[in-house]
Amino acid sequence: MSTNSATIYLKAEQNVELQTPDVFVKDLGKLTCSDPQILAKARAVRLWQFKPGESKRQVISILRVIQEIEKACPGASVENLGEADVLVEWIDVDRHKGFVQWCKLFFVALISFFGTAFTIMAFHNDIGINEVFSKIYEMVTGAPGDGYGILELSYSAGLAVGIIVFFNHIGGRRITKDPTPIEVEMRVYEKDVNQALIATADREGKEIDVS
To answer: In order of start, what are the domains of the chain with their CATH numbers?
Structure first.
């Protein structure tokens, strides 16, 4: 098949993380074409190369991608079925290994644990949970509560079970196949950050666009 009749379909992602400084078309998303030779040539087109000391993030316009593919494959047409701009980030793998990384992980785990515990205790203190339990105990038994009993123990167990069910995890295992609330919020946050970075690069004129 000649390049004059070849159509390359590109489904670009919004965010791409690479472990090498060279950015190729194949790294931006999925490509398909009826001509395997044209497809291989298009996938191998290099778009950018990160250099030490420069920003490890770069926004590449899909128009620039189409332009470079058409240069490498004269006569071929490119149709994009994905994002209009791609945020490419170069991840230096060596920097994310070793003792320092484990220290960061341990510190975040401590903050999450004690921060959550403090939030729960502060909430219970605000609503006066001890007084509520004492009142319920007195209404049911007719005698004032004299310490921690079945109500407090049941509430504590129910709180733990509720947290596990809500976050859909027991240790490293997922209870159901549905995404957890944290995963949903992280995807929303990631999408908002990507859009903000892309918009900032476009306004500052730092986007790799058509020449």
So the answer is: 3-95 (2.60.480.10), 97-202 (no CATH)
